[in-house]
Design a protein that fits this description.
Blueprint (H helix, E strand, L loop, with lengths): L1 H15 L3 H26 L1 H6 L9 E5 L7 H5 L6 E4 L15 E4 L7 H6 L4 E5 H6 L7 E4 L1 E3 L18 E3 L3 H11 L4 E5 L7 E3 L5 E3 L18 E2 L1 H17 L3 E4 L10 E2 L9
Parallel strand pairs: 1-2, 1-8, 2-3, 3-4, 4-5, 6-7, 8-12, 9-11, 12-13
Antiparallel strand pairs: 9-10
């Protein structure tokens, strides 16, 4: 039943994407109701108190924020066993192939994973957006819930970058943006992106129309059950990354793109292999 709800939800959202005004209205409702919902939830579970303990807990260190793009490989992950890693969504599909495990994990999209998958995750720190938490029955003892302040139109001027994760995290276009805010809140000064291919089989163009990108056949490193499940808003994602870069530049944080290939050119590129030369 849970998987059926997700599939139906995906189909409905794919339709809504064709109507920007309706999409904005839906996001506005989720944002405003979510703030009220989270305040009630926090009074019961005291998530903000636990989140505040993370502030600057990794000050000055480096970390890797990993996406699920097709460029991601098991071999790359094996080299990250001693590194602090942020991950998201269905990264766990590669766990059977590697002994590597991430330290941090986030999901803010309600159909990102199922309830069963969320509750079975064995990752030290798991961050769920309030909307995801509300849509699923979460019992995972490692879960921390944050309030997700939704960006309504994904324009550059509409994005914000949170400097207080205990209050809110700005969400929009990509969960990688969430992980960048968490990493900055925890005090990491060097952040390396990996597996951020920044292209999808289906994308939203500047006019809001969903178009087929014939140059891309896969959205993820794992086998996609349906390319139409992911519709990438590349312009929105780029604006999220530009917002992160602007914040990082002002706060002495270095964000590098160590992805093998891909289309993201917002951040300075570095060779992934060069990061492990002794």
């Amino acid at each position: 039943m849970d998987e059926l709800k997700i599939r139906i939800g995906e189909q409905i959202r794919n339709i809504i994407h064709h109507f920007p005004r309706l999409y904005r209205l839906c996001c506005m409702f989720v944002r405003d109701y979510g703030k009220l919902y989270y305040s009630i939830l926090d009074k019961k579970f005291h998530y903000t108190d636990e989140i505040r303990k993370l502030k600057d807990s990794k000050k000055g260190k480096r970390c890797f924020v990993i996406g699920n793009g097709p460029s991601l490989t098991v071999q790359d992950l094996e080299r990250l066993k001693e590194e602090d890693c942020f991950t998201a969504n269905r990264i766990f599909k590669i766990f059977p192939e590697t002994s590597w495990r991430p330290d941090y994990y986030a999901v803010d999209d309600w159909h990102g994973i199922s309830s069963a998958e969320a509750n079975q995750l064995e990752i030290p720190h798991i961050f769920f957006g309030d909307y995801f938490f509300r849509k699923h029955k979460i019992t995972n003892k490692n879960a921390l819930v944050f309030y997700g302040h939704r960006t309504l139109d994904l324009k550059l001027e509409s994005f914000g970058f949170s400097d207080d994760m205990a209050k809110e995290i700005y969400i929009g276009a990509t969960v990688t943006f969430v992980n960048l805010q968490i990493a900055a809140y925890m005090g990491y000064k060097e952040i390396y992106l990996l597996g951020i291919d920044h292209s999808f089989p289906y994308e939203i163009d500047s006019s809001g129309k969903v178009v087929r990108n014939n140059a891309v056949n896969r959205s993820h490193f794992f086998k996609d059950t349906g390319a139409t499940k992911i519709i990438g808003n590349i312009e929105g994602m780029t604006n999220a990354y530009l917002t992160a870069k602007n914040y990082a530049d002002k706060h002495g944080i270095q964000i590098y793109n160590a992805t093998r290939g891909g289309k993201l050119e917002v951040f300075q590129r570095v060779d992934f292999d060069s990061l492990f030369i002794e």
